[in-house]
Amino acid sequence: MGKTILTGVKPTGAPHIGNYIGAIRPALDLAAAHEKSFLFIADYHALNAVRDPAALKRDSYEVATCWLALGLDPAKTVFYRQSDVPEIFELTQLLAAVTPKGLMDRAHSYKAAVDKNREAGRDADADVNMGLYTYPILMAADILMMDTDIVPVGKDQVQHIEFARDMAGYFNHAFKDVFKLPEYKLAGDTGAILPGLDGRKMSKSYNNHIPVFMESKARRKLIMKIVTDSKLPEEPKDPDGNTIFQIYAEVADENAAREMRAAFEKGGMGYGDAKQKLFEALEAAFEQPTKIYNDYMADTSKIDALLAEGAEKARAVARQTLARARAAVGLKAS
Ligand code: TRP
User: How many angstroms separate the alpha carbon of residue 47 from the centre of ligand 1?
Assistant: First the structure.
């Protein structure tokens, strides 16, 4: 039987090319390669930190649209909002009943918040809400609900998957085998770090990022801003210490990347030419997705309709898992 793969994404605003290369593209590839795949918008997880209802709504549409525009196939991947599947929250409560408090105390994200408070001389739990504290239980419910085999994650999420596995084990041991034990698969942020306009790691916090979705003119202007040294076109250059090439190598096809590498090494490839080539490669990759993105964002009812269909499919699976879990603990299977 084929494996089931599941990923949750927090709604955090429009992606940049580093997000695409490091996280979105690998997750899409994995979803396409597995028989069953689930991808959902973790809006309840986001709520622990967001206090602006309009922002939560907008960011949720934005992230949904982003994945659709970049090639997620909702006919193949079950695509839904976490908040549209109430069974998940009921399962969270069932898992909470078998989860030791100490496990939550050991969660990296909670510990990081506590450390930060201590450093600032504040009460250890200042600004820590129960949503943050029990974040891993909700996440385990997301995962266990869909009989997930594999969860592609970045390094920062590995502990959460181990916790989900632990909780599945506690439950299965206390009652009976209801849950599959999920595994994580490191996806993204394992490879090379994509540099931004100034050569540092591409990041919104450095404001050196190239958004995925943008109009051609703005994209061109941004690419022309990539910082280079002052070598002349005819001088040989090291492609690996060169922002233009590093981005190009990720978005252009292999042959084109090989050609640019050779031209830089040999001499004769000026930065202006290389920027133009990079711009063209980015256009080829993202012009159409930008159009799709803008179309969806202009009419969010289409996204609602797609997500409603996804929620129905997700709930069909969720109802079965929840019935199994309720029966196992001695509740009416409902
Ligand atoms: N915690 C994940 C993040 O911050 C998002 C998430 C929520 C998730 N539920 C999940 C990821 C289930 C994988 C599986 O990125």
Answer: 13
* CATH tag for 4-193+299-329 (out of 1.10.287.70, 3.40.50.720, 3.40.50.620, 3.40.50.10490): 3.40.50.620
| Type and span of the H or E element at 38 | strand 36-41
Task: Spell out the residues 6+ positions from residue 213 whose beta carbon is closer than 8 angstroms to its own.
Answer: 14, 15, 66, 69, 286, 289, 290, 293, 294
Kindly report, residue by residue over 28-72, the tens digit of the pLDDT.
999 999 999 999 999 999 999 999 999 999 999 999 999 999 999
Does the predicted model carry a pTM greater than 0.90? yes
H or E element in which residue 184 lies:
strand 183-186
Write out pLDDT tens, residues 82-91. 999 999 999 9
Is the minimum distance from the CB of 209 to ligand 1 under 6 angstroms?
no
Residue nearest ligand 1's atom 10 by CA = 8
CATH architecture of 216-285: Orthogonal Bundle (1.10)
Q: How far is the CA of 140 from the centre of ligand 1 (A)?
A: 9
